Q: What sequence folds into this?
């Protein structure tokens, strides 16, 4: 009786075992960023992973102009962003592993934080609030993809529109 030959083992690729457990989601609180968070939540649930949130107060987004009666307070801006992040986490019923608000260059800070927390995946929308910054220094998402040491999932927004009810449109009475 001849012994049965075993079928050759299937070649495994890196993706076969890839199950991100530690997912980082940068947010600027825009609608596209919320869509990226939804995708990250689905991945985290599927892989029993955790989500960390980061918001970077960009120096570019804070004008250097100081008016006589008004002065921009970086601490106040960061505190307000932390409150928004709390509300975001609550709305998505999320208990983030990390919840950070910092200041600096958005792409650099996200990449540093991903390395520090050993993120397996960064999930970011292809665009957010900024338009002037994109013209001046390039897309934050592009720079994160370029400098990150972990995989980055960029959620394309395309012609995605915010639902009318959330845009603050008023209905006729």
A:
């Amino acid at each position: 009786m001849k012994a049965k030959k075993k079928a050759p083992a299937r070649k495994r690729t890196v993706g076969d075992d890839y199950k991100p457990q530690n997912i980082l989601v940068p947010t600027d609180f825009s609608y596209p960023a919320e869509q990226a968070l939804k995708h990250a939540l689905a991945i985290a649930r599927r892989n029993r992973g955790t989500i960390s949130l980061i918001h970077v107060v960009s120096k570019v987004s804070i004008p250097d102009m100081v008016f006589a009666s008004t002065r921009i307070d970086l601490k106040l801006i960061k505190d307000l962003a932390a409150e928004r992040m709390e509300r975001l986490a609550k709305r998505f019923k999320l208990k983030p592993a990390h919840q950070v608000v910092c200041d600096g260059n958005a792409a650099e800070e996200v990449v540093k934080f991903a390395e520090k927390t050993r993120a397996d995946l960064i999930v970011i929308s292809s665009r957010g609030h900024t338009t002037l910054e994109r013209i001046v220094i390039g897309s934050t998402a592009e720079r994160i993809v370029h400098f990150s040491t972990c995989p980055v999932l960029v959620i394309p927004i395309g012609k995605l529109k915010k639902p009318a009810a959330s845009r603050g449109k008023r209905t006729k009475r």
Notes: Strands lie at 22-26, 50-58, 98-104, 121-125, 152-155. Residues 9-13, 66-70, 169-173 have pLDDT under 50 and may be disordered. The chain is about 35% helix and 15% strand. The chain has one domain: 19-159.
